[in-house]
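Weekly sync, protein design subgroup
Attendees: M.S., D.O., the rotation student, P.L. (late)

Item 1: inverse folding check
M.S. brought a backbone from last month's batch and wanted to see whether the design step gives back something sensible before we order anything. D.O. pointed out we never logged the input encoding, so this time it goes straight into the notes. Structure tokens as presented (450 positions):
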């Protein structure tokens, strides 16, 4: 099939922007620094980078191949491709797991993004002018402790996501991403410069992020690093497969995937380079958890001249980065509902959004009325959603995607999708998809359970 019924990206660049929009999000700016802080800094960052390049990139290529070859929702793409490859139709489970993971992730993603929206308004109104670490800590606690406020912002973010998804990933969104992503990049660079020149603790921050101590490696930290690699690249749940379905035939899949992964990694590392110097300059805890970005950045903005403006723009960009990711979380489910029930995109988007909103209340409450309710040992509702989706379902989805693509997908389809890729590159890629990526994930799973 040369076109998808859901629409098509107008060019390869638009696919790269949309997929980079999906990849770059809260995972880079909010989650990466705090999980790195909780899991040993440099050792974690190294493991994460290895996972991005040896496991993540091959799986991104595999997902895009499947998506473009099938041109449907991940569930139906898998059905189509198993039929064309004479493979077992049970591989469709990849699509189903993806819908489940997307739903779980969106439910909490919207809550955290809601915090960012709240901060956007606080920044704009000058709440954080002159803020120090006590003020920033208190502000974070009072926002997350306020059930009504959190649910209100959560609802607003979810409504925006549904609205955009309902209207389709057309020109409007493409254009938004086109201008906002470069702006986010420039602002991050400016912040890195600020942290380097004025925090007085830039080296300490860099040392924390990049110096590797062997005692910091642990089975669980390795699992979290791998989970982060999947989460940040939007892999293992069909989001990239769904976006790949709208990719024009002429575009190079390997080139696009490499660009997306590099952009995503740079944004994560830059965020760490902004946040950790501020952590050390203000005597904050590097292992502060989900509040890390929300406590550190307001201090920086509170103290720099023009911080009110920069802070407002920054949280605006974080919000947009989150929206361009959130819409990709629901795309697999929306596309499937449209294909299966022949309902409109709008109806599909609203149904999924309402369900995810409801499930998200569990996360909204995890920081206040349910902060002592543990679903898994020592894990709140939020921690549980995050742990199960990122550290288990996404990597498992990734193993299945790589295994299917490497071993069971009709070879002619594989070759056709990779087009003019030179012979040796194709061999290396095949080795990565067949062996390195699936075995890598399995090794990490085993290590974390020992
Ligand atoms: N990659 C996004 C981020 O880093 O914020 C989160 C995400 C989006 C994960 C889409 C998974 C996904 F399918």
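Designed sequence read out in the meeting:
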């Amino acid at each position: 099939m040369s076109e998808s019924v859901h629409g098509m990206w107008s060019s390869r660049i638009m696919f790269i922007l949309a997929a980079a929009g999906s990849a770059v999000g809260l995972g880079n700016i909010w989650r990466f620094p705090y999980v790195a802080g909780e899991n040993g800094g440099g050792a974690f960052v190294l493991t994460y980078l290895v996972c991005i390049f040896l496991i993540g990139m091959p799986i991104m290529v595999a997902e895009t191949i499947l998506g473009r070859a099938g041109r449907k929702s991940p569930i139906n793409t898998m059905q189509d491709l198993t039929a064309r490859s004479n493979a077992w139709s049970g591989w469709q489970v990849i699509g189903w797991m993806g819908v489940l993971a997307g739903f779980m992730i969106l439910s909490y993603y919207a809550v955290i993004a809601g915090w960012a929206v709240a901060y956007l308004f606080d920044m704009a109104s000058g709440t954080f002018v002159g803020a120090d670490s006590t003020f920033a800590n208190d502000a974070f606690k009072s926002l997350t402790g306020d059930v009504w406020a959190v649910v209100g912002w959560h609802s607003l973010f979810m409504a925006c996501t549904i609205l955009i998804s309902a209207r389709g990933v057309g020109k409007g969104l493409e254009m938004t991403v086109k201008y906002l992503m470069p702006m986010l990049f420039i602002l991050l660079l400016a912040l890195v410069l600020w942290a380097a020149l004025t925090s007085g603790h830039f080296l300490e921050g860099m040392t924390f992020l990049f110096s590797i101590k062997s005692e910091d490696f642990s089975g669980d930290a390795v699992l979290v690093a791998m989970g982060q690699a999947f989460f940040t690249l939007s892999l293992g749940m069909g989001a990239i497969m769904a976006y790949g379905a709208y990719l024009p035939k002429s575009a190079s899949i390997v080139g696009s995937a490499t660009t997306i992964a590099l952009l995503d990694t740079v944004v994560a590392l830059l965020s760490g380079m902004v946040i950790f110097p501020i952590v050390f300059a203000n005597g904050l805890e590097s292992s502060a958890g989900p509040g890390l970005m929300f406590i550190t950045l307001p201090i920086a903005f509170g103290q720099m001249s023009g911080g009110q403006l920069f802070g407002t723009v920054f949280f605006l960009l974080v919000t947009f980065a989150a929206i361009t990711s959130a819409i990709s979380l629901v795309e697999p489910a929306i596309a499937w509902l449209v294909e299966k029930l022949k309902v409109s995109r709008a109806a599909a988007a609203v149904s999924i959004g309402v369900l995810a909103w409801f499930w998200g209340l569990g996360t909204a409450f995890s920081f206040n009325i349910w902060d002592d309710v543990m679903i898994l040992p020592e894990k709140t509702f939020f921690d549980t959603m995050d742990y199960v989706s990122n550290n288990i379902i996404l990597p498992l989805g990734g193993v299945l995607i790589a295994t299917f693509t490497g071993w069971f997908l009709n070879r002619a389809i594989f070759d056709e999708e990779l087009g003019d890729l030179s012979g040796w590159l194709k061999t290396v890629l095949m080795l990565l998809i067949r062996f390195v990526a699936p075995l890598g994930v399995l090794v990490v799973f085993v290590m974390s359970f020992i």
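Discussion: Residues 22-23, 25-28, 102, 105, 231-232, 234, 237, 239, 325, 328-329 surround 4-fluoro-L-phenylalanine (CB under 6 Å). The CA atoms of residues 145 and 236 lie 33 Å apart.
Action: P.L. to compare against the previous round before Friday.
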